[in-house]
Amino acid sequence: MTNNPPVTIRRAELADAPAIAEIYNEAILTTTGTFDTEPKNVDERTKWLQSHDERHPILVAVLDGQVVGWASLTRWSDRRAYDDTVETSFYVHSTRRGEALAESSKKRLSRRHAGWAIIR
Question: CA 1 to CA 69: how far, in whole Å?
Answer without folding.
Answer: 22
